[in-house]
C-alpha cells in the first residue's frame, strides 16, 4: 500500500492524525485489536505484520528526531500525537508515503519559545521539506521578507521521516482503497488516498502469463433467489431479460431452498451504466422482493468481428479472438442457427465434419 498526501495551506500533526483515522475507517485493512480473536489465525498473522510495520515507522520517526535535534522545539501535545502515528500507518498497511505539492505561505508565524527557537524551527522545517515540491502562496498585499511554511514542524518531521522526496504523482495505477479530506477547527486541512499498487503488479503478471494484454472493465452482477414463480413464468422472465439491451449474460441455477422448497438462483450481468435499468427489469419480470448487487472486474481477451466457415463451407459472421498469441475464429450462434434452419439440420451438423462415404463392392 502507498499513501498519497496533499497538505492544505495549514498542515500540522493533529490534521495528519485526523486524516489517517478517516482513512483507517474507510479502508479497514487490518482488524481492530478487539476483532482479532474472532478472525482466528488470519487475524493473528495480520496483527503480527501490523506490529512490525508500526515498529518500523516508529524507528524511522525517532531517527529523524535524533538527526535534527529538534525535540525541544515541540510541545508535549505534538510529541504525544507523533507517538500515535506509527500505529495508524501500520493499520493502513502503508509501506510508503508520497507527498504532493506542499503549500508554503509567505508570512510570519509565531511558534513556541524564544526568538532563537522560532528561527531554529523555521530553518529545521524548511530543511525537512527540501526535496519535496514546494508551491509558494503569497499573502495578498503584503511585502514579505521571509517565508514560513504552513506545514508545522511536527508535520514536517513526519514528512521528512516517512515521505518520499521528488516522487512524481503522475501516471498512478492501482486499486483505490480509501480517500479522505479533513479540516480541523484550527484551520488545518489535508487530503489523501490509499492506493494498492500490488494489485496492478499482479495484473501485469497475469497478463504476461496469459500471453497478451487483457482488457479489464467493471461490470455489475445482479442476483436473486426465486421460489415463487411457475415454470412458464421463469421461462418468460429468462427470455425477456436475455433480450434486454445492456444485459451481458443471464444465468439460472436450480436448487433446494429453505423448508426444502425447489428454488432457483437468477443472475444477470451488465455494465455499470445499465445497472438501474436492468435492476428495474429484474423486478418487473420476476416480482422478486429484492436483489443483490456485486461489482466485478471482467477480463477480456483481444477480439474483433470476423468471418468463419461452417462445416458445409458456408461463410458466416464470427468472433475472432487471441489466446497465447494465436488468433482463433468462432462462428456467431445466431448465424449458425439461421443456417441450420435453412438446411433443416441441427447446429452440431454445421460444426462436425461428415465422414466420407465409401462405395460398396458387389
Characterization of the model:
This protein has 3 domains: 2-201, no CATH class; 215-300, 2-Layer Sandwich (Alpha-Beta Plaits); 303-350, no CATH class. The protein has 9 helices and 14 strands. The chain has helices spanning 13-27, 40-68, 76-91, 115-129, 153-162, 198-210, 231-242, 275-286, 333-343, and strands at 2-7, 96-99, 102-106, 134-138, 163-164, 175-183, 189-196, 215-226, 247-256, 262-271, 292-300, 303-309, 315-323, 326-331. It has a 5-stranded mixed sheet with strand order 5-2-1-7-6. It is elongated, with a radius of gyration of 31 Å. It starts with a strand and ends in a 19-residue tail after the last helix.
Q: Helices, strands, pairings?
A:
Layout lengths: L1 E6 L5 H15 L12 H29 L7 H16 L4 E4 L2 E5 L8 H15 L4 E5 L14 H10 E2 L10 E9 L5 E8 L1 H13 L4 E12 L4 H12 L4 E10 L5 E10 L3 H12 L5 E9 L2 E7 L5 E9 L2 E6 L1 H11 L19
Parallel strand pairs: 1-2, 2-5, 3-4
Antiparallel strand pairs: 1-7, 6-7, 8-10, 8-11, 9-10, 12-13, 13-14
Helix pairs in contact: 1-3, 2-3, 2-5, 4-5, 7-8
Amino acid at each position: 500500500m502507498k499513501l498519497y498526501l496533499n497538505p492544505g495551506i495549514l498542515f500540522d500533526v493533529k490534521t495528519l492524525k485526523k486524516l489517517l483515522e478517516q482513512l483507517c475507517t474507510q479502508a479497514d485493512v487490518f482488524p481492530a485489536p478487539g476483532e482479532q480473536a474472532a478472525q482466528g489465525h488470519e487475524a493473528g498473522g495480520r496483527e503480527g505484520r501490523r506490529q512490525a510495520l508500526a515498529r518500523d515507522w516508529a524507528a524511522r520517526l525517532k531517527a529523524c528526531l535524533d538527526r535534527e535535534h529538534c525535540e525541544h522545539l515541540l510541545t508535549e501535545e505534538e510529541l504525544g500525537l507523533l507517538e500515535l502515528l506509527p500505529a495508524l500507518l501500520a493499520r493502513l498497511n502503508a509501506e510508503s508515503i508520497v507527498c504532493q505539492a506542499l503549500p508554503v505561505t509567505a508570512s510570519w508565524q509565531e511558534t513556541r519559545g524564544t526568538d532563537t527557537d522560532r528561527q531554529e524551527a523555521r530553518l529545521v522545517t524548511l530543511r525537512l521539506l527540501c526535496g519535496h515540491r514546494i508551491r509558494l502562496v503569497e499573502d495578498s498585499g503584503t511585502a514579505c521578507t521571509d517565508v514560513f511554511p504552513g506545514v508545522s514542524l511536527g508535520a514536517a518531521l513526519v514528512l521528512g521521516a516517512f515521505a518520499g522526496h521528488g516522487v512524481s504523482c503522475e501516471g498512478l495505477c492501482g486499486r483505490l482503497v480509501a480517500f479522505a479530506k479533513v479540516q480541523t477547527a484550527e484551520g488545518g486541512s489535508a487530503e489523501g488516498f490509499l492506493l494498492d499498487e500490488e494489485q496492478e503488479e499482479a495484473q501485469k503478471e497475469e497478463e504476461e502469463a496469459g500471453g497478451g494484454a487483457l482488457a479489464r472493465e467493471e461490470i455489475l452482477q445482479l442476483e436473486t433467489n426465486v421460489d415463487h414463480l411457475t415454470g412458464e413464468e421463469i421461462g418468460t422472465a429468462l427470455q425477456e431479460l436475455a433480450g434486454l439491451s445492456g444485459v451481458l449474460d443471464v444465468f439460472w441455477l436450480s436448487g433446494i431452498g429453505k423448508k426444502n422448497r425447489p428454488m432457483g438462483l437468477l443472475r444477470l450481468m451488465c455494465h455499470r451504466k445499465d445497472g438501474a435499468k436492468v435492476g428495474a427489469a429484474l423486478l418487473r419480470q420476476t416480482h422478486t422482493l429484492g436483489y443483490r448487487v456485486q461489482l466485478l472486474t471482467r477480463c477480456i481477451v483481444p477480439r474483433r468481428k470476423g468471418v468463419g466457415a461452417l462445416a458445409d463451407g458456408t461463410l458466416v459472421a464470427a468472433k475472432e479472438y487471441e489466446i497465447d498469441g494465436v488468433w482463433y475464429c468462432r462462428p456467431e450462434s445466431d448465424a449458425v442457427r439461421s443456417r441450420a434452419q435453412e438446411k433443416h439440420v441441427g447446429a452440431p451438423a454445421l460444426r462436425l465434419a461428415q465422414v466420407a462415404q465409401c462405395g460398396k463392392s458387389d
